[in-house]
Amino acid sequence: xxxxxxxxxxxxxxxxxxxxxQPGVIIQYFKDDATAFxxxxxxxxxxxxxxxxxxSAALFEVLQRAxxxxxxxxxxxxxxxxxxxLDIIKIETIVRNIVAGSLAxxxxxxxxxxxxxxxxxxxxxSDALGDPMLxxxxxRMLRLATPGELAWMKRTALKINSILRPHLARRGxxxxxxxxxxxxxxxxxxxxxxxSPDTCRLxxxxxxxxxxxxxFRRDLGGVEEAYQEVFRRLVTEPHGPDSGHRRSNAGSRxxxx
Length: 257
Ligand code: TMP
Ligand code: ASP
Known about the structure:
Layout: E1 5-11, E2 15-20, E3 25-30, E4 33-36, E5 41-44, H1 48-65, E6 72-77, E7 80-84, E8 87-88, E9 91-98, H2 101-107, E10 114-124, E11 133-134, H3 136-141, H4 147-169, E12 173-180, E13 182-185, E14 188-191, E15 200-204, H5 214-217, H6 223-236
Antiparallel strand pairs: 1-2, 2-3, 3-7, 4-5, 6-7, 8-13, 9-10, 9-12, 10-11, 12-15, 13-14
Helix pairs in contact: 1-6
Aspartic acid binds next to strand 4.
C-alpha cells in the first residue's frame, strides 16, 4: 500500500514524526539540526539527517536479524524511515563500555577507562527537568514502567550492546556508550528512536579519535567529517562477514579485528 505523510505528530530537536495514512505507522524525518546541553547550544551538522537515517536503518536491521524487536519497518528516502507507532516510555536507557562524558564527571575516572562489566543507567526523559538520572525505585514511584518492563529494557539494552559492539568493532569503531529509547505497541515492547552518532559515542579503535556528536558538543571541529567517516565505515563499505551477504572484505580499508 502507498504510504503518505499526514499530520505532524511531534517535532523534536533532531527529528519530526508524522502520522501516515496507515494506522499505527509513522514516518521519522531526520533533520540536520543539532543541539546540546538541553538545547542551550544549537547548530547545524550538514548531512547529519541523511547519515542518521541510513545508519539507524542499517543498525535496526542488524538488531532485527538478532531478534531484537525494533520499530523500524523500512527506509522511505534519504531522510525518512517508516516505523511502527510506539507509546514511548519516558526513560533514556544508557549503556556504557568505556568511561566518558557524564560518567567521567560523576566518578572522577579518566575518559577512556575501560569498564569490565557494561553499565546500564536510567534517565528521566524530561526536557523541563534536564533529563535527571533515575534508579529503579524512582521508575516505580513515577510509574514510568512496570518492574517487568524495566527488567526487559535493561536485559535488551545489554543484548543490543553485545550485538552492536562487535559489529562496530569490525568496522574499526569503539562503542563507548549509547542511549536507547523503548516504547509500547499493544502488549509488547520495542526499541524506538534512532541509533546514530547523535546517540552513541564512537571512537576510532586505533587512534581513539572521537567520531560522534562530542565533536559538536565540545567544539572539536571536523563534525561533518566525523559523521561521514562513521557512515562510510558502516553503510557504504563492503560489509564484513556478519552482513548476511558473505561478501569478501577485499578492498576494504577498515582494519578488521
Ligand atoms: P552522557 O555521558 O552525557 O551521560 O551521555 C551518555 C550517552 O548518551 C552518549 O552516548 C550520548 C548519549 N546522549 C543522548 O543521546 N542524548 C542526550 O541528551 C545526552 C546527554 C546523551
Ligand atoms: N540532544 C540533547 C540536547 O539538546 C543533548 C545532547 O545530545 O548532548 O539537549
